[in-house]
């Protein structure tokens, strides 16, 4: 079995690497945060001396980093993955990054006899914890076959969306809808609170009509509505994704006025220092701005 390098052990990378380790994969791990590395080492992974060591030892290197900047730095710097990798190696980038950065990496990899697969992650952090993530993959058929078993060790659902870049583009379409729904739910809850409505009754109505949506049903009841805004997925990362969505839309002349409005709502939230909380906390940012009591369900409330 190929030794696997894993770089980026944050809210998502940690459970994903843990699940690989539990399924018997031999991992060599790295993160700029030493505590995150120690946690994986306690589960049986080995701490990398440096990136070059990961590149030399591991046929497949997974990155789960915040943005294009960190992924390109890890892949392309002289002491990084590409300059030190074995021929035939795969960089399996699972972060949500600019698909144009993925294409730059693809070209640089091919020049060195390496390849890139983009396999961003769908569903919530709690799904990653349970090994129930969904993956959308951009890869050649040959590379897809090599990485597919790893994905099933970290999740339940895998879609091969097309060639390199197709995974990341699918993820942008997905996250546009996810973040826009989050904004819409936040505004609707603020209005309901201002009206002085009973929140349990309002939610019961929303879940019973076509107003219901995945964010309201799957995420809000476990996060902001029960006063938990620890991330999850941060407002900063949601803002980064909306910036990628708008950049791609502008370049291809796709009008997305709603995306622009949602992006700026998240810009406002970040300016008021909500950036590091869970993105369902956009509901709190809206309520706080308008001096409306935050939307919270009563203790013991459950979806019918
Ligand atoms: P995070 O901020 O919790 O984790 C990022 C990790 O990368 C941190 O541990 C950080 O120390 C490490 N890191 C940063 N720069 C580094 C570098 N140069 N070298 C090594 N390590 C470095 O972020 P996350 O929530 O785990 O998200 C990671 C990626 O996955 C992002 O692109 C995000 O958009 C995407 N994503 C997140 C979720 C979610 O629900 N959190 C879901 C799907 C996709």
State the gist of this model.
The protein has 304 residues and is an alpha/beta fold. It is built from 14 helices and nine strands. The strands form two sheets. The chain has a six-stranded parallel sheet, with helices on both faces.
Can you tell me about this structure?
There is one protein chain. Strands 3-2-1-4-5-6 form a 6-stranded parallel beta sheet, sandwiched between helices. The chain has a 3-stranded mixed beta sheet with strand order 7-8-9. The mean pLDDT is 97. It has 2 domains: 161 residues, Rossmann fold (3-Layer(aba) Sandwich); 120 residues, N-(1-d-carboxylethyl)-l-norvaline Dehydrogenase, domain 2. 51% of the residues lie in helices and 12% in strands. Helix 4 runs parallel beside helix 6, helix 9 crosses helix 13 and helix 9 runs parallel beside helix 14. By secondary structure, it is α/β, with parallel strands linked by helices. Strand 2, helix 2 and strand 3 form a beta-alpha-beta unit. The termini are far apart. The structure holds nicotinamide-adenine-dinucleotide. The site of nicotinamide-adenine-dinucleotide (NAD) has 26 residues, from helix 4.
